[in-house]
Design brief:
Rossmann fold; single chain; alpha/beta; 31% helix
Length: 311
Protein backbone atom coordinates (compact mmCIF):
# COMPACT_ATOMS: atom_id res chain seq x y z
CA UNK A 1 0.00 0.00 0.00
CA UNK A 2 1.36 3.40 -0.97
CA UNK A 3 0.39 6.63 0.71
CA UNK A 4 -0.13 9.56 -1.62
CA UNK A 5 0.27 13.00 -0.12
CA UNK A 6 -2.18 15.56 -1.36
CA UNK A 7 0.37 18.33 -0.95
CA UNK A 8 2.75 19.33 -3.70
CA UNK A 9 1.41 17.70 -6.85
CA UNK A 10 -1.52 19.21 -8.74
CA UNK A 11 0.16 22.16 -10.43
CA UNK A 12 2.93 19.97 -11.80
CA UNK A 13 0.36 17.58 -13.28
CA UNK A 14 -1.15 20.49 -15.17
CA UNK A 15 2.21 21.86 -16.22
CA UNK A 16 1.43 21.43 -19.92
CA UNK A 17 -1.77 23.44 -19.65
CA UNK A 18 -2.07 27.18 -20.10
CA UNK A 19 -3.14 27.71 -16.48
CA UNK A 20 -3.26 25.97 -13.14
CA UNK A 21 -6.55 25.62 -11.27
CA UNK A 22 -6.95 26.54 -7.61
CA UNK A 23 -9.62 25.29 -5.26
CA UNK A 24 -11.69 27.92 -3.53
CA UNK A 25 -10.25 28.04 0.00
CA UNK A 26 -13.69 28.97 1.35
CA UNK A 27 -15.43 26.04 -0.29
CA UNK A 28 -16.31 23.18 2.05
CA UNK A 29 -19.42 21.58 0.56
CA UNK A 30 -21.71 19.32 2.50
CA UNK A 31 -22.42 15.83 1.14
CA UNK A 32 -25.84 16.99 -0.06
CA UNK A 33 -24.24 19.68 -2.22
CA UNK A 34 -21.51 17.47 -3.73
CA UNK A 35 -23.31 16.64 -6.96
CA UNK A 36 -24.24 20.29 -7.47
CA UNK A 37 -20.64 21.38 -6.89
CA UNK A 38 -19.27 18.73 -9.25
CA UNK A 39 -21.79 19.64 -11.95
CA UNK A 40 -21.10 23.36 -11.53
CA UNK A 41 -17.33 22.93 -11.67
CA UNK A 42 -17.43 20.66 -14.70
CA UNK A 43 -19.78 23.03 -16.51
CA UNK A 44 -17.36 25.87 -15.71
CA UNK A 45 -14.38 23.88 -17.01
CA UNK A 46 -16.28 23.00 -20.19
CA UNK A 47 -17.33 26.63 -20.65
CA UNK A 48 -13.67 27.59 -20.37
CA UNK A 49 -12.84 24.86 -22.92
CA UNK A 50 -10.56 23.10 -20.45
CA UNK A 51 -12.07 19.59 -20.56
CA UNK A 52 -12.06 17.64 -23.78
CA UNK A 53 -11.33 13.97 -24.18
CA UNK A 54 -11.38 11.67 -27.18
CA UNK A 55 -15.17 11.36 -27.10
CA UNK A 56 -15.75 15.05 -27.75
CA UNK A 57 -12.69 15.92 -29.82
CA UNK A 58 -14.87 16.52 -32.90
CA UNK A 59 -17.70 18.19 -31.05
CA UNK A 60 -18.37 21.81 -30.32
CA UNK A 61 -15.76 21.97 -27.56
CA UNK A 62 -12.43 23.13 -28.91
CA UNK A 63 -8.96 21.83 -28.16
CA UNK A 64 -7.43 21.97 -24.70
CA UNK A 65 -5.07 24.99 -24.76
CA UNK A 66 -1.68 23.40 -24.32
CA UNK A 67 1.45 25.41 -23.71
CA UNK A 68 4.63 25.15 -25.74
CA UNK A 69 5.82 22.27 -23.56
CA UNK A 70 6.56 19.35 -25.85
CA UNK A 71 6.89 16.56 -23.33
CA UNK A 72 4.65 14.52 -21.04
CA UNK A 73 2.07 16.21 -18.85
CA UNK A 74 4.11 15.77 -15.66
CA UNK A 75 7.64 16.99 -16.15
CA UNK A 76 7.53 20.78 -16.26
CA UNK A 77 7.60 22.25 -12.77
CA UNK A 78 5.99 25.62 -12.09
CA UNK A 79 5.38 25.87 -8.37
CA UNK A 80 7.25 27.02 -5.30
CA UNK A 81 10.54 25.59 -4.05
CA UNK A 82 8.67 24.52 -0.89
CA UNK A 83 6.40 22.25 -2.94
CA UNK A 84 9.37 20.98 -4.90
CA UNK A 85 10.69 19.20 -1.81
CA UNK A 86 7.31 18.09 -0.48
CA UNK A 87 6.89 14.34 0.01
CA UNK A 88 4.15 13.14 -2.34
CA UNK A 89 4.57 9.36 -2.10
CA UNK A 90 5.31 7.38 1.04
CA UNK A 91 5.53 3.61 1.56
CA UNK A 92 4.50 2.92 5.19
CA UNK A 93 6.04 -0.57 5.14
CA UNK A 94 9.53 0.22 3.86
CA UNK A 95 9.48 3.90 4.96
CA UNK A 96 10.67 4.89 1.50
CA UNK A 97 9.34 8.15 0.10
CA UNK A 98 9.59 10.40 -2.92
CA UNK A 99 9.47 14.18 -3.05
CA UNK A 100 8.34 15.78 -6.28
CA UNK A 101 11.99 16.63 -7.00
CA UNK A 102 12.98 12.99 -6.55
CA UNK A 103 10.17 11.73 -8.77
CA UNK A 104 11.21 14.15 -11.48
CA UNK A 105 14.95 13.45 -11.31
CA UNK A 106 14.44 9.67 -11.14
CA UNK A 107 12.04 9.79 -14.07
CA UNK A 108 14.42 11.82 -16.21
CA UNK A 109 17.37 9.56 -15.36
CA UNK A 110 15.30 6.52 -16.34
CA UNK A 111 14.11 8.19 -19.54
CA UNK A 112 17.65 9.04 -20.54
CA UNK A 113 18.69 5.47 -19.74
CA UNK A 114 16.00 4.06 -22.01
CA UNK A 115 17.37 6.15 -24.85
CA UNK A 116 21.03 5.48 -24.10
CA UNK A 117 20.89 1.73 -23.47
CA UNK A 118 17.93 0.60 -25.56
CA UNK A 119 17.67 3.33 -28.22
CA UNK A 120 14.12 4.04 -27.07
CA UNK A 121 11.97 5.59 -29.78
CA UNK A 122 8.73 7.51 -29.75
CA UNK A 123 5.73 5.19 -29.29
CA UNK A 124 7.82 2.27 -28.05
CA UNK A 125 5.80 0.37 -25.42
CA UNK A 126 7.05 -0.42 -21.94
CA UNK A 127 5.06 -3.10 -20.11
CA UNK A 128 4.64 -2.93 -16.34
CA UNK A 129 3.90 -6.21 -14.54
CA UNK A 130 3.88 -5.48 -10.83
CA UNK A 131 1.72 -4.97 -7.73
CA UNK A 132 1.46 -1.41 -6.47
CA UNK A 133 4.91 0.01 -5.93
CA UNK A 134 6.23 3.40 -4.91
CA UNK A 135 8.56 3.38 -7.95
CA UNK A 136 5.64 3.24 -10.40
CA UNK A 137 5.22 7.02 -10.92
CA UNK A 138 8.91 7.63 -11.67
CA UNK A 139 9.03 4.72 -14.12
CA UNK A 140 5.82 5.86 -15.79
CA UNK A 141 6.96 9.41 -16.37
CA UNK A 142 10.45 8.30 -17.32
CA UNK A 143 8.88 6.23 -20.08
CA UNK A 144 6.83 9.26 -21.15
CA UNK A 145 9.91 11.50 -21.05
CA UNK A 146 11.49 9.19 -23.61
CA UNK A 147 8.36 9.32 -25.78
CA UNK A 148 7.19 5.85 -24.78
CA UNK A 149 3.81 4.36 -23.98
CA UNK A 150 3.19 2.50 -20.71
CA UNK A 151 1.10 -0.68 -20.73
CA UNK A 152 0.39 -1.98 -17.18
CA UNK A 153 -0.64 -5.61 -16.72
CA UNK A 154 -2.50 -7.37 -13.93
CA UNK A 155 0.14 -8.92 -11.62
CA UNK A 156 -2.07 -12.00 -11.12
CA UNK A 157 -1.78 -12.93 -14.81
CA UNK A 158 -0.57 -16.36 -15.79
CA UNK A 159 2.29 -16.78 -18.27
CA UNK A 160 -0.12 -17.12 -21.20
CA UNK A 161 -2.23 -14.15 -20.14
CA UNK A 162 0.81 -11.92 -19.77
CA UNK A 163 2.26 -13.17 -23.07
CA UNK A 164 -0.97 -12.20 -24.82
CA UNK A 165 -0.77 -8.61 -23.61
CA UNK A 166 2.96 -8.31 -24.33
CA UNK A 167 2.39 -9.42 -27.90
CA UNK A 168 -0.80 -7.44 -28.43
CA UNK A 169 0.66 -4.13 -27.20
CA UNK A 170 4.01 -4.69 -28.91
CA UNK A 171 6.06 -4.29 -25.75
CA UNK A 172 9.79 -3.62 -26.23
CA UNK A 173 10.68 -4.24 -22.57
CA UNK A 174 9.08 -5.25 -19.26
CA UNK A 175 9.43 -3.89 -15.74
CA UNK A 176 8.46 -6.25 -12.92
CA UNK A 177 9.38 -7.16 -9.34
CA UNK A 178 11.69 -9.95 -8.32
CA UNK A 179 8.96 -12.38 -7.09
CA UNK A 180 7.29 -12.15 -10.53
CA UNK A 181 10.48 -12.47 -12.54
CA UNK A 182 10.08 -16.13 -13.55
CA UNK A 183 6.53 -15.57 -14.83
CA UNK A 184 7.72 -12.49 -16.71
CA UNK A 185 10.70 -14.32 -18.20
CA UNK A 186 8.56 -17.19 -19.52
CA UNK A 187 5.98 -14.81 -21.02
CA UNK A 188 8.67 -12.62 -22.59
CA UNK A 189 10.38 -15.65 -24.11
CA UNK A 190 7.11 -16.74 -25.74
CA UNK A 191 6.76 -13.39 -27.56
CA UNK A 192 10.42 -12.84 -28.40
CA UNK A 193 11.41 -10.20 -25.83
CA UNK A 194 15.06 -10.62 -24.89
CA UNK A 195 15.88 -11.50 -21.31
CA UNK A 196 18.06 -8.39 -20.95
CA UNK A 197 14.96 -6.29 -21.66
CA UNK A 198 13.40 -7.42 -18.37
CA UNK A 199 14.24 -5.19 -15.40
CA UNK A 200 12.99 -5.08 -11.83
CA UNK A 201 11.65 -2.35 -9.57
CA UNK A 202 10.92 -2.11 -5.86
CA UNK A 203 13.16 -2.80 -2.87
CA UNK A 204 14.44 -6.24 -3.83
CA UNK A 205 17.46 -6.73 -6.07
CA UNK A 206 18.59 -9.82 -7.94
CA UNK A 207 21.07 -11.44 -5.51
CA UNK A 208 23.06 -12.80 -8.45
CA UNK A 209 23.18 -9.41 -10.15
CA UNK A 210 21.94 -10.78 -13.47
CA UNK A 211 18.67 -8.84 -13.69
CA UNK A 212 19.11 -5.08 -13.68
CA UNK A 213 17.23 -2.79 -11.35
CA UNK A 214 15.49 0.09 -13.09
CA UNK A 215 17.77 2.59 -11.35
CA UNK A 216 20.70 1.14 -13.29
CA UNK A 217 19.00 1.99 -16.60
CA UNK A 218 20.66 5.36 -17.05
CA UNK A 219 22.99 7.21 -19.36
CA UNK A 220 26.33 6.57 -17.66
CA UNK A 221 28.59 7.32 -20.61
CA UNK A 222 28.19 11.08 -20.43
CA UNK A 223 29.14 11.27 -24.09
CA UNK A 224 25.64 11.87 -25.40
CA UNK A 225 23.10 14.43 -24.30
CA UNK A 226 19.52 13.26 -24.56
CA UNK A 227 16.51 15.54 -24.74
CA UNK A 228 12.91 14.91 -23.83
CA UNK A 229 11.01 13.52 -26.80
CA UNK A 230 8.60 15.96 -28.44
CA UNK A 231 5.01 14.78 -28.47
CA UNK A 232 1.61 15.90 -29.67
CA UNK A 233 -0.55 15.64 -26.51
CA UNK A 234 -3.75 15.37 -28.54
CA UNK A 235 -2.60 12.44 -30.64
CA UNK A 236 0.27 10.64 -28.90
CA UNK A 237 -0.52 7.88 -26.43
CA UNK A 238 0.46 7.92 -22.78
CA UNK A 239 -1.06 4.55 -21.83
CA UNK A 240 -2.28 1.30 -23.34
CA UNK A 241 -4.49 -0.18 -20.63
CA UNK A 242 -6.36 -3.44 -21.02
CA UNK A 243 -9.90 -4.51 -20.23
CA UNK A 244 -10.54 -7.49 -17.96
CA UNK A 245 -11.43 -9.78 -20.85
CA UNK A 246 -14.79 -10.96 -19.48
CA UNK A 247 -16.23 -11.32 -23.00
CA UNK A 248 -13.12 -12.65 -24.70
CA UNK A 249 -9.49 -11.60 -24.84
CA UNK A 250 -8.61 -8.36 -23.02
CA UNK A 251 -8.71 -5.36 -25.32
CA UNK A 252 -6.28 -2.46 -25.30
CA UNK A 253 -7.60 1.05 -24.66
CA UNK A 254 -5.57 3.92 -26.09
CA UNK A 255 -5.26 6.97 -23.81
CA UNK A 256 -3.50 10.11 -24.98
CA UNK A 257 -1.71 12.62 -22.76
CA UNK A 258 -4.64 14.94 -23.37
CA UNK A 259 -7.09 12.30 -22.10
CA UNK A 260 -5.14 11.99 -18.84
CA UNK A 261 -4.99 15.75 -18.29
CA UNK A 262 -8.75 15.97 -18.89
CA UNK A 263 -9.29 13.23 -16.31
CA UNK A 264 -7.15 15.09 -13.77
CA UNK A 265 -9.18 18.26 -14.34
CA UNK A 266 -12.41 16.39 -13.69
CA UNK A 267 -10.95 14.93 -10.50
CA UNK A 268 -9.97 18.43 -9.43
CA UNK A 269 -13.53 19.64 -9.98
CA UNK A 270 -14.98 16.75 -8.01
CA UNK A 271 -12.61 17.04 -5.05
CA UNK A 272 -12.58 20.83 -4.84
CA UNK A 273 -12.93 21.85 -1.22
CA UNK A 274 -12.60 18.31 0.15
CA UNK A 275 -8.85 17.69 -0.05
CA UNK A 276 -6.48 20.48 0.98
CA UNK A 277 -2.75 21.07 0.97
CA UNK A 278 -2.74 22.30 4.61
CA UNK A 279 -5.20 19.92 6.30
CA UNK A 280 -4.38 17.23 8.84
CA UNK A 281 -3.28 17.21 12.48
CA UNK A 282 0.19 18.52 11.59
CA UNK A 283 -1.03 20.78 8.76
CA UNK A 284 1.00 18.68 6.31
CA UNK A 285 -1.88 18.20 3.92
CA UNK A 286 -4.49 15.51 3.36
CA UNK A 287 -3.22 12.02 2.57
CA UNK A 288 -4.79 9.20 0.60
CA UNK A 289 -4.20 5.45 0.97
CA UNK A 290 -3.42 4.11 -2.49
CA UNK A 291 -4.98 0.65 -2.27
CA UNK A 292 -6.57 0.64 -5.73
CA UNK A 293 -4.43 -1.26 -8.27
CA UNK A 294 -2.08 0.91 -10.29
CA UNK A 295 -2.41 -1.40 -13.28
CA UNK A 296 -6.06 -0.30 -13.50
CA UNK A 297 -7.00 3.10 -14.88
CA UNK A 298 -8.96 3.86 -11.69
CA UNK A 299 -5.86 3.56 -9.55
CA UNK A 300 -3.70 5.15 -12.21
CA UNK A 301 -5.89 8.21 -12.64
CA UNK A 302 -7.41 8.71 -9.20
CA UNK A 303 -4.51 7.84 -6.91
CA UNK A 304 -1.18 8.06 -8.67
CA UNK A 305 -2.16 11.25 -10.50
CA UNK A 306 -4.36 12.68 -7.75
CA UNK A 307 -4.98 16.43 -8.12
CA UNK A 308 -4.37 18.89 -5.36
CA UNK A 309 -4.92 22.51 -4.45
CA UNK A 310 -1.82 24.43 -5.52
CA UNK A 311 0.08 26.05 -2.68
Amino acid sequence: MVQVSHSGFFSCLLSTLSLTFYADSNTNPTPTSQSCLLSRNIHWLISQKQICGASCSKGRIKNIPMTRARGPYILTWQSSITDYWTVIYHDPYTKRSYTYAQVKSTAIDFGKGLKALWDWQKDDVLALFTPNCIDTPAITWGCHWAGGILSPANPSYTVDELAFQLKDCGAKAVVTQLPLYETTKKAATKVGIQENRIIIMGDQRDPEGVVKHFTSIRNISGTSRYRRTKINPEEDLAFLVYSSGTTGHPKGVMLTHRNIVANVLMLKAGESGNLRWNNGPNREGDKILAFLPFFHIYGKGCLRSIPRRAS
